[in-house]
Amino acid sequence: MGSCKIIVFLFCVFIHGAFSQKRNQHKRELWTVEQANDWYKKMPWLLGSNFLPSTAINQLEMWQADTFDPVTIKRELGWAKSLGMNTMRVYLHDLPFQADSAGFMKRINVFLNIAARNGIKPVFVIFDSCWDPFPKSGKQPKPVPYVHNSGWVQSPGLTALKDPAQYPRLERYVKGVISRFAKDKRILAWDLWNEPDNINGNSYGKVDLADKATYVLPLIKKTFEWARSVNPTQPLTSGVWTGNWTSDASLRAVEKVQIGESDIITFHNYGKPEEFANKMKQLERYHRPLICTEYMARPTGSTFEGFLPTAKKHKVGMINWGFVDGKSQTIYPWDSWTKKYNDEPALWFHDIFRKDGTPYKQEEIDLIRSIVAIK
């Protein structure tokens, strides 16, 4: 992107911000450390998965009216309950809201009712910078055989991310959803942006924005402002996912917003147990509740047995990637975008259950239940 385009983009952002500032005068403030920890003291040790029903290839197929599948959701959240899980991280998307906001809200409410009946309080993700930067409403593609997350889509898409003229639409989405459920005790937290500066190098890197952080930075700031302006009773967060977190000086600009604006601190780690423990220690200096919202990739050394005992000891909430092997195909590794696979891998990358509810590894199920203390 040329310097002139950047100047024009930032000018448009400034103008929109000037008009929005007055509307946000009564937003709630960032929780104090004491407020955050008082909230966390009331919580059990948090355990769950990133959840997508096995019948959906992406967020659009999960939430669009013609493919919303409460039957599968009910069945699979029942399996989560059987493990003692009490939360799930669930991705929303701006396009279903744009197409039919009232219907989208009703479907979220249905999901929340099912989750509540299973003792699960979800963390809802508002925006996501991972995988396909060109989301389209309507019928979604079939999975590409043996490819990890072949149909997952970003929110907002590249076109909207680059265009400040779409900020009002995105503002309506953020405020509309969060205000509707701002006092809903069935919801654990709002994760405002997943991996915001991820440029998807091994999948969509050739078409994604190489300078994505330039576009994300002003919008993630606004997203926190919009969310806070509707006074949610649930905490707001955005998880740091890569980089050096040892000091404020080592943080990238986007990470400074993520941590500085979050009521509770969330993070991702797919490394070995010692790396996880080190990252956890780096973030403990903020003295806020910690939740690891992505982990568990067996071939990388990120496992239930390696992470959960340490996490529970420190009361760090844990939400692994993947629950049921389905259309997302995340049993295959990230490198399935560049390396050919022809069969189920000997060692699954993510996920816990097969579609029929059979555990991939019974010993993992037994471990999870023993740590949660379910007989």
TrEMBL record:
Keyword RNA-binding among record annotations: no
Glycoside hydrolase family domain ranges (all copies): 80-321
Gene3D superfamilies named in the record: Glycosidases
Keywords from the named record: Glycosidase, Hydrolase
GO molecular function (one): hydrolase activity, hydrolyzing O-glycosyl compounds
One biological process term in Gene Ontology: polysaccharide catabolic process
Protein family (similarity comment): Belongs to the glycosyl hydrolase 5 (cellulase A) family.
Protein name in UniProt: Cellulase family glycosylhydrolase
Origin species: Candidatus Pedobacter colombiensis
Organism classification: Bacteria, Pseudomonadati, Bacteroidota, Sphingobacteriia, Sphingobacteriales
